[in-house]
Write a structure and sequence with these properties.
By secondary structure, the chain is mainly alpha-helical. The chain is 79% helix and 0% strand. It contains 2 helices and no strands.
Length: 38
């Protein structure tokens, strides 16, 4: 849950660091995908 919140926070602040934004988005997608396919 904490990782998901962290990913959401990263997604909401793309101007801070583009690379971090992409990593956050990828992490959120992977977390969501693994949750859906659990």
């Amino acid at each position: 849950m904490r990782a998901t919140s962290k990913a959401l926070l990263t997604v909401e602040s793309p101007g801070l660091n583009p690379r971090r934004y992409l990593l956050g988005t990828g992490s959120f997608i992977m977390l969501f995908w693994s949750f859906e396919n659990a």
